[in-house]
Amino acid sequence: MAVLGGRRIINRVMASPLHRSCRSCATQAKKGVVVGVYNEDGQYKLTEAASAINTRTSGYLLQCLQYGSPVKGGKCRVLFGGGGEPVVGVVGLGEQKPKQQQQELEERDLAREAVRNAVAAGVQELSKAGIESISVDGCGDEEAAAEGAHLAAFKYQDLKTKKKPIPALSCYGADSERWQRGVALAEGQNIARKLMETPSNMLTPTQFAQEAVNVLEKLGVEVLTRGYEWAAERGMNAFLSVTRGSAEPPVFLELTYRGNGYTQDKPVALVGKGVTFDSGGISLKPASNMDKMRGDMGGAACTVGAIYTAARLKMPIYVKGFIPLCENMPGSRATRPGDVVKASNGKTIQIDNTDAEGRLILADALHYASQHQPRAVVDIATLTGAIAVALGSGAAGVFSNSSALWKAVHQAGASTGDRVWRMPLWMHFSSQVTEFGLADVHNIGKHSRDAGSCTAAAFLKEFVTCDHWLHVDIAGVMENKDEVAYLGKGMSGRPTRTLATLIDLLACSDAPL
Ligand code: BES
Ligand code: ZN
Ligand code: ZN
What we know:
Helix content is 37%, strand content 21%. With 513 residues, it is α/β, with parallel strands linked by helices. Strand 8, helix 7 and strand 9 form a beta-alpha-beta unit. Helix 7 runs parallel beside helix 8, helix 11 packs antiparallel against helix 13 and helix 15 crosses helix 18.
C-alpha cells in the first residue's frame, strides 16, 4: 500500500468503478455481489467470479484489495461500486487446500466450512449496508455457499412491528442443482430455528402441530395429529405423566414421508423431543435463563426441519417422524417426585426428578416407533445439561448401539460442518438407572448428576428394540452465542442439516440398515 506522510493515497481508487467509501451511490444500486478470494502465502488468488469482476473492472478489484490489511478467512471487505456497478463484498476463503492433518483433527470438511463462513460474512456485511439483492459466488462449492448465505440471512423478527429487510439471494451465474440443495438444507434448519425461538405461549403443542402441517403437508408429507385419548389408549403413561401439571393438552405427531415410487417397507424413524416449555415441573428449575426452555422442543423442530429438507429434495427414502409434544409445568395435578408410572412397553418407571422429563416422553415415543419395524431409529432431544458440560457447543453427543449408523452420522456431520461426537452406551450406566428403588427403571441415575448424559441415554436404551438406534443429545448446541459465525445469535436449529444429510446417506446406501 502506498503511504505518503502517514496518509494513504486513495484518490486513484476513489475515481475507479469500485471504491470503498461512497455509500450513497452504493445504496442507490441496492444490488450486491459476494465473491471469494483465497489467500495463498500472503498472495490473493481469485475465484472464477472474482476474476470475472476483476477483468470487467480492468483490474480494480485486485487493486482495491492492495489497500488495507489482507482479507482474512471468514471476513469481508465491502467495495462500494460507482456507475451502476453492484456493491462487491470480497470474502476471504483462506487456503484453497486445507492441510490434511488439520482436516483429520477437525473431523469436518474445512474447505466447505470456509465457504459457509466467508459467504455468510459477505451476506451479513452487504445486508448491513442496505443491499436488497445479493448474487453469491459459489466459491467452488455452491451447496456450502447457499447454506452460508441462507443461514446468515435468517432473522427471527416475526414479533417485531418494524422488520429489518432481508436480502434476496441468488447464485452468481446460474442456479445449479447443488445451490438448490444447499438452499433446501439451510431452509430446513431455518424452520427449526424459527420453531425453537418462538415463545412458548405462541407455540403450544397444538400450535406446533399446526406449524408442522403448514410446513410439511404442501410437500406431500402426511401429518397425523393425535391427542390425549389416543395416547391413553396406548398406555403412554410416561408421556402423559409429564403433561399432567399443564393446562395445555398434549399432542402426539406422526409424520410420514415416502419418496416418489419408493417401495421399501421399513421406515427410518426419527423421534423428536417436543417439550414446548420445560419449567422442570415440581422439581422446578432456577429462574435465571428459564426462558431458554422455550427451545426444549429442539429435537422436534430438527425432526420437522430434516423431513422438510428430505421432502423438498425428493430423497428416495421412507421416513417416519414421531413427535411427543407437551409442556412440563408444576400444576396441582403434576407428577410428584417419587411417583411411579407404567410405560407403554410395560416397564415401570420411578420419577425421582420431574425435570428429567424428556426421557419420559421419549420412552413411549421410542416404543411406538419400534412398532413400525424401522430399519433405523434416530431420536433427537435437548436432553441433558450434562452434555453441554462435556462438549459445550462443539458437537451434539451421540449414543448408538450400531457402529454402522454411527459412521453414517459422523460422515454426515463432517460434510455439514455441524459435528457429532460419540459417547458411551455401556451396561455400566444401565445398572445405574435400573438396579435399585421401587420400579424397573429410574428417570435419574443413582449417582445423582454424575455422567448425566450417559445415564439418560442408558434410560432410553430400556425402551428401544431396534438394532440400529442412535440417540442425539442436542442440549449443548441448542443455542448459538457467537460460536458458529454463519448462525446469528439465538436458537440454532442444530443439527438439522446433519440429520437431513444422514437421511440422504441412508437413502443412497445399500447397507442393510
Ligand atoms: N431440558 C432439559 C435439558 C437442557 C438443559 C436443555 C439446558 C437445554 C439446555 C432437561 O429436561 C433437564 O432438565 N435435564 C436435567 C436432568 C437432571 C434432572 C437429571 C438436567 O440436565 O439438569
Ligand atoms: Zn427438564
Ligand atoms: Zn427438558
